[in-house]
MBL fold metallo-hydrolase (Carboxydichorda subterranea), 338 residues
Amino acid sequence: MVHADPPHEEVFPGIWRVPIAIPVPLRYVNSYLIEGDAGWTVVDAGHHTPQAEARWEQVLGELGIGFADIEQIVVTHYHPDHIGCAGWLQQRCHAPVLILDKELPQVERFWDGGSDAGEAIEAQFVRHGVPGEVTRQLPAHHLQQVAMVHPLPRLTPLAEGSRIRVGRRSFEVLWTPGHSEGLLVLWEPDERLLVADDLILRPITPNISLWPHSRINPLIEYLRSLERVQQLPARLVLPGHRHPIEDLARRIDELRAHHRERLDRVEAIVSARAAAADGRGDLLATAWDVQLQLFGPQPELIGTRFAVAEALSHLEWLVEHGRLRHAVEEPVIRYAPA
């Protein structure tokens, strides 16, 4: 279900937050329009849906911006609510679409027309105990996501540490992996402004998921990214969902505490399951078992995907840090105390 859009608003001089409805439980994504001397910069674009197209036409019209006035589009990461409409916008405005070079493999891996990403997710979930009535739906579900990111834009890669100039503002490109492998955030030191997309959210927490082909456990990277940006003297944080955040350091403390608590809970779930199994390996906890206790049954498949993948990122963090182990590898992976 696609929801109605909240109104767009100027959240900082020359910067407009444009909430765009998305067909997932988060309801809407924040795109941003940043005014420059010679044109406008778009940051993120929403899923590519007819409603998103209409939304962009409406907002640009109300602000008196023509498509030709858009000089560049920044995509913070490959997720469909951020990259989805970028190709359509590029066709209308002929502007470059910028993305961190480290995120290009994820775009190809998940959104290329010949990709086997849906089947890879299905295989991963089977290995972690997800029932067949769920896993069999995953390839077709992934193709539904692919449809909402096409046409793919022609992408211009950015290097970590490079700068994006928007009028008098110069944003530094920071690499902050975890939510995705090539997630970028934009830091403007003079105005102490952080465009943080899905690195930092409030009151919700970013989904930190382990997907096929991940380079390293994403929760390890996410916590390092939080540590990296916590020292920035930001006075305003513009997130990818919900409302602006004024106290960066405090919110990061809250996010870190959240994950410490979740790690402790995951470890307790696995330990309790091991005690009840009484030595039987086939009764030890799988990622499916853990996510059911963490989040409960999900009403939509997209929620189930996120729940399993987030449980996995926490389980594998605990394995990496010697608090859990893979006690069984076949036919499914099961966890036990180290």
Observations:
- The chain has eleven helices and 14 strands.
